Batch of 2 targets.
Target 1
Amino acid sequence: MANRLSEWTRNQFPASALTLVPVGVALNLGIGTLVQIIKLPVFLDSIGTVLVAVLAGPLPAIVTGLVTVFVAGFLTNPFLPWFAGTAIAIGWFSGFTANRGGFRRVWVWAGCGIMMGVISAIVSAPVISYLFGGVTASGSSLVVAYLLATGQTLLRSVVLAGVACDPVDKLLTFLIVWFLIKGLPRSLRARFPRGLQNTMAGGDRQAVATMSGDAGAHFHS
Amino acid sequence: MPISTLNPRSKMVLWASIMAAGLIFRSDWSLIAYALLIVPIVVLATRTGRRFLSFVSTVVAPTALMLFGVYALLVPPPPGSAEIVLHGVRLSAWGFGIASVITARLLVITAATIGFVSSQPLTELAGALQVMKVPKALVAVFVSSFSIHRLAIRQVRQIADAQRSRGLNPRGLLLGRIRMYIPILRPLVFMMLLSAVERSSLWESRGYLDHLATTDRLRSHDVVAIALAATVVFCAVGSRWIL
């Protein structure tokens, strides 16, 4: 059983997926610097996780998210490790939808981004309300305070504020990843475990498979 | 029982129990002072060799996580009534304060780890983790994340400066600023993915996916150390409930 588990782990994490994890972590952390330079009113702190999910699948994306929150907890913000659950949810959902073909059409991928925003708001809500009392460093705390004043419970206020704000951020994240990956050459995408399967339309995949088969036939003859 | 002959895992558990005794303190300041006593040990570790370095690193981070988890279970959530904005703000500030205190405990203990990680070269840290039988692949991912993060920040600034010299203006309308995000991000992602492909060939050639056979086994004094540690942790947590 232990051998089967280690074999399964090795299949989920080939070398190309393992090297993608630090890239995803660096993108998640480095994008924050870029957002400050351009002065955007969003976070965009999961671009690396979603990129790894599309190119390598959900498990490497989950690892990317977890390593990001703990490295960021060491380097920049000690409150981030509390949001490990949110990082897991983002990694799993984006990998799951990419593996099911969500990436191949931009409007489907955008819908997945909106859904991701709702899911991350729901997953983060208990941490924000029970641990931080509804107060975070973002502007959504004002929305929480307003909803509290209207008589809502703390948890409900945090959920509603999150559902109002997070989908925009995650939609932008998913769209940016779509543009980035579509701009990559096919040869580079092919170097990663799910790079071609998740990013190519059905006809293109068939064409590549046929070309590979023909090339193999020529080689063996 | 000579500590130097203990298995690294049982050493960790023994040290964790000493730090878990900090749970007995009811005052946060007493706990902080107690935890700060650990800092000289880390300072000593930076002056000594890889063995002591790996020993301390085995202890600090898992202990911090353990204390963090136990306190998250023991500290009650703040009360939930909020009828006016002022009461809501006071409630939120108190919740934030509790989170800060919990995190302060973790901060004090992990400050030692941060200072330790920052003061050691990454190759030494990687070597220490491998001595502790952490899989090579995991070590490589963790250590690379620290080094690539610094490289990514430098590259972002370089690309942003280059694009600014080509007319990029970060003071325009929001839609324009979002559109100018892509010309900066695309070369950065492309360069990092290319380096990831090169690194994967490098790791494969150095056998980073091979599993090390281990001859570690727990001996009788390891069992005694673990039992002693478990007793101390149980007493510390139990005293928190009773006292």
Target 2
Amino acid sequence: MDHEKNIEQQTTEAFNRLTNPERLKASDNFFEKVQAKLEDTPKQATIYSFTWRDTMKYAALLAIMVLNGILLFEVTSSDSMATELGEEDVSTLVDEFFPDYYTVNEE
Amino acid sequence: MITAAQEKHISIAALKAGDTEAFKQLVEEYKDAVVNICYGYVQQREDAEDLAQDVFVEVFRSMDKFREDSSIYTWVYRIATSKCLDALRSRKRVKRQAFFKARQSSGEEAPELDRIRGGFADPEQDLVQKQQQEYIADALDKLPEAQRIAFTLSNYQGMNNKDIAEIMERSAGSVESLIHRAKQNLRKHLYEFYKSQFG
């Protein structure tokens, strides 16, 4: 019972302190500190003020896009070459195994 | 609390133009209020002052975004609340126990206890007060965000429900309910902390 009473008492004290906080006052040189921070804080980036890190980031992105483009070009080019070769192979196979193929079609 | 008459003396056009005198006037009018709001969140005097300075830096930087559909008062308090919540989120990454232990082991007292220390020469009493401060901070941290905002503006700034409702873009009834539930939850959390301590 004493335990519970003690807990309640501590809780009430803490709650009273919480709900009746001290009213603070800003320091006398508060505005000067704000001004100092304004001078220290970097201004927001504009299109003309890229940092080195931003430049590297976008350069890497551009390089990846260019590589992707080259890769795509290579893949599509090799596909068309493979098609031409394929057609030759098919003609050879037709001549070898179906010699009468063209004669039949002509009829 | 800032009155409408006081606010009329602050030129919005001058603020938007980046006029230093107008900005200084704004800072002088609102600095105490913003420090107290920040204190409601961070529970440390030095941190509250530092955070309040960051609030005004943000106010200055985003002055061109002020749409004048609300009062400057509402707008400044919204920025303050947003900055405070950001600070709390980043602070939660640092364990609170480690934070308090580090300050205790370095011999550095929590500044807000300076006013209490004068009345208590007893180290045990100091420890009790420090623990109480820690429990208060933890109980506030446990509150849902909306309850915390409403409670802080009401308790640390003495705002009425109508003004809080404007800042939070809710009804006054909703704000009243949030504050009531916040107090219930705070009391419950504090009870749980003390119960776990005393067994």
